[in-house]
Design goal:
There is one protein chain. Helices cover 48% and strands 9% of the residues. It has 25 helices and 15 strands. It has a seven-stranded parallel β-sheet with strand order 8-9-5-10-11-12-13, with helices on both faces. A four-stranded antiparallel β-sheet has the order 2-3-1-4, with helices on both faces. Helix 2 packs antiparallel against helix 3, helix 10 runs parallel beside helix 12 and helix 24 packs across helix 25. The N terminus is likely disordered.
Length: 773
């Protein structure tokens, strides 16, 4: 079947009544789709993000098809032609929506898949239309493209060369598809040159809507939201540039337009930062800057349109394109962001060290040291062949021992090679956020400092434990989170780096993201959770000490960053030191608090990726506390490491009346097939008052706030009875045996033990039990 090229001018006028009806139909359709955009963000944040997002996009496509169908039925001439174009474009977002099922951490795989689907769609269009092509371009296009790239060059960082090639090719393919739709019936202003302004404005609006349709599901994560900001003015720019070439060159011109309009933003946007979660992070996060760049692209498009319409001089546009390109590259290079930031992979080896026999070592520090030596020696021996192969290829990598694994920098072909090596068990993405052009602002709390013991401590009996003379002295907490405000009065004197000779950060602080030498916390989450453990006025164990590590510098982590911190907190090493050679397990933390999870979709972790680490830590006598997660109330919403593991104590959240918080994740665990009951214990996690950066205080809710209560309680138990230090089984048993029964009737709705575990933490009873041993 062939659709011949038809340059016959469609009818360009309709009755007033039809015009009002069409406008109303389009307005309703656009309004519903705008609401669906918000629903899509909400679904991503609070529900089953992948399937939910796909369904929302399909609903918007169905609504779009209904609107286009009504336009085709009611309209005529140019109006009907525009509606047919929109209708013909709808299969592309409907198909690309399927790629949402690819985990967002797999951005390169998603781009390859979207490129393949887009090429198939475009080739089908080309076969149907069979429009003869003529290569012709204009400096106006390159000048406009350089202008549109400016905001992205000001804020962005390119990915790997494979990422760059995929993004540009995908953008050009989307433009090519749009060109094919226009080649079927070109706009009147391209065919006839001079048209009435109302016709030109109407055609530009139609092309803008076409861009919105084509980009509805384009790119990874929230990229389509960026194009929603700039596409509404892109149609007029497309129309203005197209006037300067022959209509037979519509397709190649449109492909180049798509390369600039869609491809360049995809090149310079960090796909891992385009998750709605980061919209609520500290400003200026990557998503914030990308939205500003998209708005900047729209504004610059408005400025370039008059140049394209009224300044046809090719020499001026050539010179302008060169000058603007130089200015943009200067912004990129001058900002230190020109080095491509490629993908990384977390490669777990099959042969994991067995340290189970070391549990028989009775001396605590000797056992820790023995576990460290066993792990490091095993990793060095079993990684040798793979490291040698990577060295021969010039591939950069970082080895790990707590899990026998490596983080490796490379693209999809390297991943395929790694997955087929016999010593490799699994390869998973390791999303690593690209650098920002501006420093993040530091959060500030909005609560006054407390003048009495907070309710979340009194309801679990903390003051009674203090009255027994137990305040956590002699216990070292390992805090891995967004960081710590070490100068906060709640935390400063408990920092293990505070010495008689001043503050010493060596062996006490690590930032694997930026290499910062001193503690910091932009987000506030780490400061809040640590102060709940040992803050002077808001903490469970105010006489304990802490060392810290940043695994969530910008609220997105990955398995290697979590391991960086776990290894450092287990066996600290000096700045620039080698974790394999220079780690000192005798200086490590007794208790690790983990108010974070590592979901596979966002951060790449599989159900087993970090399990060897927590097994080894338990053998070494390190008590690991994990927050259950905030995906409740659905059953089996405890779904990601570390909370799913039997080797950790998983903590759910209750309010101060003892009722399970609706957000608190519950078991049974299905992600690893174990059906393991979770959480193990409950603690206050609603409106918890604690420290926040800039010497402030803040109330926060989440299981992240609940877990620190248990970490602090363990510090009190081990301080009360040092014989318990390293005895994980006995400590857990005390916490379970002394827990207060859950007082409401919704405890077993997901099966026995799921949701409420052993009950609600009772610190006073637990400390008395520890003292009595």
């Amino acid at each position: 079947m062939t659709i011949p090229f038809d340059s016959t001018p469609p009818r360009s006028s309709i009755s007033w009544a039809k015009g009002c009806a069409l406008t109303a139909i389009l307005g309703i359709g656009l309004g519903i789709n705008a609401i669906l955009r918000l629903v899509e963000i909400g679904v991503t944040l609070f529900a089953s993000g992948d399937t939910g997002r796909m369904i929302v996009i399909w609903i918007s496509v169905v609504i779009g098809a209904a609107v286009c169908g009504l336009w085709v039925w009611i309209g005529s001439g140019a109006v009907r032609t525009a509606a047919v174009r929109w209708l013909a474009a709808l299969p592309l977002p409907a198909t690309l929506a399927l790629t949402i099922m690819i985990p967002s951490a797999e951005s390169q795989l998603l781009m390859v898949t979207q490129l393949g689907l887009s090429l198939i769609y475009t080739l089908v269009l080309a076969w149907l239309i069979r429009r003869p092509l003529q290569w012709q371009t204009t400096p106006i296009l390159f000048n406009a493209g350089a202008f549109l790239a400016l905001p992205w060059l000001a804020i962005g960082t390119p990915g790997s060369w494979v990422d760059v090639g995929l993004a540009l090719t995908l953008g050009a393919t989307i433009g090519w598809a749009g060109g094919q739709l226009l080649a079927w019936r070109p706009p009147l202003s391209w065919v006839h040159g001079e048209v009435p302004m109302r016709v030109w404005l109407g055609e530009g609006a139609a092309l803008s809507l076409l861009l919105l349709v084509l980009s509805r599901a384009l790119g990874p994560n929230g990229a389509a939201l960026l194009f929603c900001c700039c596409a509404p003015v892109g149609g007029w720019l497309w129309l203005a540039i197209g006037r300067h070439v022959d209509v037979k060159a519509i397709v190649p011109l449109s492909a180049l337009f798509g390369l600039f309009f869609f491809g360049v933003p995809l090149v310079l946007t960090d796909s891992d930062a385009l998750v709605p979660l980061l919209l609520f992070g500290s400003f200026p996060e990557g998503f914030h800057l990308a939205l500003l760049a998209a708005l900047g692209q729209a504004l610059l498009a408005l400025l370039v349109i008059p140049l394209a319409l009224f300044l046809p001089n090719r020499l001026l546009h050539t010179a302008g394109a060169a000058l603007v390109a130089v200015a943009g590259l200067t912004l990129l290079i001058g900002g230190g962001r020109a080095t491509p930031a490629g993908d990384r992979w977390f490669v777990v080896l099959r042969d994991q060290a067995d340290v189970s026999d070391l549990t028989t070592i009775t001396d605590y520090q000797t056992r820790r040291s023995a576990v460290y030596r066993r792990l490091t020696d095993h990793a060095i021996a079993t990684q040798a062949d793979l490291r040698a192969a990577l060295d021969s290829l010039g591939v950069r990598y970082t080895p790990y021992y707590l899990v026998n694994a490596l983080e490796i920098e490379g693209d999809l072909p390297l991943r395929l090679w790694l997955a087929n090596r016999p010593e490799v068990a699994e390869v998973m993405p390791s999303p690593f956020l690209r650098p920002l052009p501006l420093p993040l602002q530091t959060a500030r709390g909005d609560e006054p400092s407390p003048d009495e013991t907070p309710t979340n401590l009194t309801v679990i009996g903390v003051p009674e434990a203090w009255a027994l003379g137990v305040r956590g002295a002699g216990i070292l907490i390992g805090q891995a989170d967004s960081g710590v405000d070490a100068e906060h009065p709640e935390l400063s004197d408990a920092y293990a780096g505070q010495t008689e000779n001043g503050v010493i950060h060596a062996y006490h602080w690590l930032d694997p993201w930026t290499g910062a030498e001193a503690p910091y916390d932009h987000n506030g989450h780490g400061t809040h959770t640590l102060a709940t453990i040992l803050g002077n006025r808001v903490g469970v164990a105010p006489d304990a000490q802490w060392i810290g590590c940043v695994n969530l510098a910008r609220n997105i982590g990955n398995a290697p960053r979590y391991l960086d911190c776990m290894q450092f907190l287990f066996a600290p090493y000096p700045p620039g030191g080698d974790p394999f050679r220079d780690g000192n397990p005798t200086r490590g933390a007794h208790i690790l608090n983990n108010s974070w999870g590592c979901p596979q979709d966002l951060e790449g972790c599989t159900s087993t990726s970090l399990q060897p680490a927590v097994r080894a830590l338990r053998t070494a006598g390190v008590f690991v506390v994990a927050s259950a997660g905030n995906d409740g109330p659905a059953c089996s919403s405890v779904n990601s490491p570390l909370a799913i593991y039997a080797e950790v104590m998983t903590v759910g959240a209750v309010n101060n009346e003892g009722r399970l918080a609706p957000f608190s994740s519950v078991g049974p665990v299905v992600s690893d097939g174990s059906l393991r009951p979770k959480p193990d214990l409950l603690a206050p996690g609603v409106e918890v008052l604690s420290a926040f950066p800039n010497n402030s205080y803040h109330r926060a809710s989440g299981t992240s706030m609940a877990g620190p209560h248990v970490a602090g309680a363990v510090a009190l138990l081990w301080s009360a009875n040092p014989a318990l230090i390293g005895n994980i089984d006995a400590t857990e048993q005390i916490l379970r045996d002394t827990a207060r029964p859950y007082p409401f009737d919704d405890s077993d709705r997901c099966g026995a033990g799921n949701g409420t575990g052993a009950g609600i933490l009772d610190v006073a009873s637990a400390v008395r039990r520890a003292l009595a041993r």
